[in-house]
Each structure stands twice: as C-alpha cells, then as structure tokens.
Amino acid sequence: ALKLNVHKTTEQAITAAARLIADLVAIRPNAVLGLATGGTMEPLYTRLVEFHRAGLSFRRVRTVNLDEYVGLAPDHPNSYHSYMQRHFFDHVDIPEDAIHIPRGDVEPDRAAAEYSALLDRVGPVDLQLLGIGANGHIGFNEPGTPVNAPTRVVDLLPDTISANARFFTAEEQVPSQAVTMGTAAILAARSVLALATGPAKAESLAAALDGAISPDCPASYLRLHPSCTIIADRTAGARL
Ligand code: GLP
C-alpha cells in the first residue's frame, strides 16, 4: 500500500526521508540501498552525511544506483558517478566495492546487460529511493515506459534534457541517452521511498497519485507497489 506524508517545509521532508533510510540501516546494517540522483536528493545526502558524523555507519551497506548518462565516464564532472562521490560516497564509510552504478563509458547495450545481471546478483533491494521527474519519470523511465520494462538503454525526452540542462554548461552537453534500471527492477524492491520537493513537481505528483495508472506517468506505477512511501513538501503536494 501507499503511504503519503506531506511536510510543511522542504527541510522537514528531507529530514523525514533521511530518518527512514537511517532507521532501516540501523535495523538492517547490511541493507541493499537503491540510490537516486538529481537536485532533490542533494540535501538528503547532506542530511545522511550528518547522521553518519553522528555515528550512523554504512560499513556493511551495498548500493545500486538507478541510472547513468551514456557517454560520460565515471570521472566526468556531470556523471552520476561523480555526483554520488561528491554528495555522499566521499563522506561516508561505504566500501568502494559495495557501490554499483551503470557504466556510461562502455558500449551502452553491454553496460545495460551487465547492470541488469548485477542487479540480479546484488538484489533484492531493501529500499529504493526515487525522485520524480517533472514529466512523471522514475529513474530515466520516461512517459511511454511499460510497467515491466527491463534495465536498458533509453533515449531521453526533450523535456528531460531541458530539465537537466541546469547541471551542465549548455543544453547541447546533456547526453541524449542513459542506462536506467527498468520499471520492473524498481518495482521489485522490497520498499520504495519517493521524494518530491518544490513546485515543479506538483503536477507530476498529482498525476502519479490521483491520475490513471498508466505509461503516461511511470510514477503512477508506484501505486502498484506493496510498500511505497511518498514524502513531499507542501509545494510539491499543492495539487493533491
Ligand atoms: C533525473 C533523474 C531521476 C531524478 C529526476 C528528478 O533526470 N534521472 O532519477 O529523480 O530526474 O530530478 P530532480 O530531483 O533534479 O528534479
């Protein structure tokens, strides 16, 4: 079933999400965490690093990330590898060999096949963290993605490229493809935590929760999951 928690402020939403992850790691120190990137997650990782400094260990955790841009090597500043190092992994005690992110710098179909096999080996994911695209995507599963899509190479839609251009020096620099965990793998997680903050997410969150369960809004598939928590701030929850 789906739990929805709308918090007054972004900070309260972030803290609630961080607590949920910290509580899981405290109870299950060897949890498999499915991690996400994007602007929404930056303050969440900051909060988790604070929890780590206050004594929370991630020493036995294993992680799998949702996605990576095709064409960006791990050390490219805009790769999701770099993002994760900068915001989280550089500041906590997760062993390097426990971290898994799709490769952006090998032949894309091979990178996807290898990542799919990796997920089968490392899974099941105990908690999958998710952001929601302004167009309703989860991971890089864009509108049009069926519920059971495999981990694969995807073409990014123009609105996703524009939305993510703010992280690059120019829109032309945003890769046109990504390797993403499929909707099937996302929904196979034991629990899902979706986080939405800011007014840009109000429409897609309302479509996800109150619209049809449909490929038009892949985030609507979360309503099919047996254990999904949605945490939003008041601006993201404005249309609910
Ligand atoms: C990105 C990522 C998603 C993320 C979403 C929202 O493109 N692939 O994993 O959840 O879009 O991003 P943001 O938090 O920056 O709005």
Plain-language structure description:
InterPro entries: Glc/Gal-6P_isomerase, Glucosamine6P_isomerase, Glucosamine6P_isomerase_CS, NagB/RpiA_transferase-like. It comes from Paracoccus broussonetiae subsp. drimophilus. Its EC number is 3.5.99.6. The structure is a single chain. The protein is α/β, with parallel strands linked by helices. It contains seven helices and ten strands. Helix 1 crosses helix 2. The longest helix has 18 residues. The model has no long low-confidence stretch (mean pLDDT 98). The structure holds 2-amino-2-deoxy-6-O-phosphono-alpha-D-glucopyranose (GLP). 2-amino-2-deoxy-6-O-phosphono-alpha-D-glucopyranose binds next to helix 5.
Task: Provide a concise account of the structure shown.
The protein is an alpha/beta fold and 240 residues long. The chain has a single domain, classed as Rossmann fold (3-Layer(aba) Sandwich). Helix content is 31%, strand content 18%.
Write the SSE topology.
Layout: E1 2-7, H1 10-27, E2 32-35, H2 42-53, E3 62-65, E4 67-69, H3 80-87, E5 99-100, H4 108-122, E6 127-130, E7 152-155, H5 158-164, E8 177-180, H6 183-187, E9 191-196, H7 202-210, E10 228-233
Parallel strand pairs: 1-10, 2-3, 2-6, 3-5, 6-9, 9-10
Antiparallel strand pairs: 4-8, 7-8
The chain binds 2-amino-2-deoxy-6-O-phosphono-alpha-D-glucopyranose (GLP).
